[in-house]
Amino acid sequence: MKDIVFVSGHKNPDSDSICSAIAYADFLFKIGRYNAVPVRLGEINKETEYILKRFHLEIPVLLKTVKQKVEDLDYDKVTVFSKELTLKTAWSLMKQQNLKSAPVSDDHNQLLGLLSTSNIIEGYMDEWDSQILKAANTPIENVIDTLDASILYLDKQLKTIKGEVHIAAMTGEEAMKRVNENDVVIVGGDRDEAVEHLIKAKVSLIILTGSLAISKKLLDKCEAEHISVISTPFNTFMASQQIIQAIPVEYVMQKGGLMTFSTDDTVDYVKEVMSETRFRSYPVLDFMGRVVGSISRFQVLNGMKKKVVQVDHNERSQAIDGIEEAEILEIVDHHRVADIQTIGPVLFRSEPVGCTATIVAKCYKEHGLEIPSDMAGIMLGAIISDTLLFKSPTCTPTDTKIARELAQIAGVDIQEFGMEMFKAGTSLAGKTVEEIFNQDYKKFTFGDLSAGVAQVNTMDIEGFAPYKAEMLAYMDQVARENHMEFTMLLLTDVINATSEVFVAGPRPDYVANAFKVELVDQQASLPGVISRKKQVVPVITEALTQ
């Protein structure tokens, strides 16, 4: 499967942005160019929701950023060690998998520490004494497993090693001076006398080497005194060496000062931390704090950028967050060429038509692809929306021609479908002023000056009256917080081809002068003005750049 390529419209998406992203992703996938997936950068409006429901299509997934995260990198899905694992088993696993370190987790897979080969080697080089198994709280199962021992008798009360480790290499009387209750003794050879003395000393565990056993009589005595007896195939030297490897990794692992990363951490953050630390690798945790792997500097440096196709925009301010870190492969748009920058050459298709979906439909036709009825339906919806049912001055004969072809494929009546769309999309009932203003809001920069322009299509301008005071207060706040000259809201009646404009911010005079109108209570009528792109942006551009 090829890498996923995200097909994205702009922020505060309108119907063209969403529908063109879905249709163009379908087109790209069908021609085998990319494994394209449509995404959205914000909440869809009611009009778009109506279009998608009408043609039984799902809302694209929300993508908040294309900044690289740890989850995007090829980090090691390493084996996670349990805290009880023996050093012997851990060393064997690390050799098999060529690991220099491994995370250690608790019973709930939460990170406890980090075990490295240096931890193990340093432990052997240090002066471990005969109480090391006791100090490490070593489970009896670890000792049995490490020594490949068979159980002759195991007392149920013996859970962990509670005493020192000895080797029976002297007379019984001499050994008695050194062996204490609960100690562990490795017995080399067939030495019943030594076992007798150990029983009297009340040791907790006797380890017989060379696969030897003891008489039933002695074993019964051991059982009576609750002394466990096991037999290992190793000789005495090997048994004394191997038993140290029964220590659980929890005892030697690095516990404090651990530096970890979450799968949700950005690569920028990871690079910053790695530049200040010098660990060979770092544990990776998921959102539940569970260990899922480890990551190294090499994997961070070799991370692949996310791939993006942009539709219906080519301005950086309208693109997805982190776009500067992504690889832009294509741009399909019908707006002015703006300030987007790319790493390398891209396929840039921009046409002076009223809607991006018109261009997408042409792509299907140029490649001889049959347009599916659902794709035809949503592209038709986008064209109707952007051209205001062909009444906008941005509408071209190409838009009208393509729309009629799409309507035939989708099996809908253009006029009826358009009116239902606008009716569903222009209702302001139940919306907050923030939702109304931001559903189709764009910021424009003109040299050192900037302004914000929002447009809402509605079939009930009079119904906006209860929102006016609160809306103007919100618009003024947006203007001042973003250091803009003004913000303006166009309430556009697409049926009667007129707009009502509301202006807030420090310099409303720019709007009044640009349109040669008098603002009464920060409001004015703009008959015939229905296109933000052709009838509003050029006018305020001239006013702000003079």
Automatic annotation (TrEMBL):
InterPro entries: CBS_dom (IPR000644), CBS_dom_sf (IPR046342), DDH_dom (IPR001667), DHH_sf (IPR038763), DHHA2 (IPR004097), DHHA2_dom_sf (IPR038222), DRTGG (IPR010766), Ser_kin/Pase_Hpr-like_N_sf (IPR028979). Its EC number is 3.6.1.1. One of its GO terms (cellular component) is cytoplasm. One of its GO terms (molecular function) is inorganic diphosphate phosphatase activity. Keywords: CBS domain, Hydrolase, Manganese, Metal-binding. Pfam families: CBS, DHH, DHHA2, DRTGG. Its cofactor is Mn(2+). Residues 73-130, 253-311 form the CBS domain. It comes from the Bacteria. SUPFAM superfamilies: CBS-domain pair (SSF54631), DHH phosphoesterases (SSF64182), HprK N-terminal domain-like (SSF75138). It catalyses: diphosphate + H2O = 2 phosphate + H(+). SMART domains: CBS, DHHA2. The keyword Metal-binding applies. This is inorganic diphosphatase.
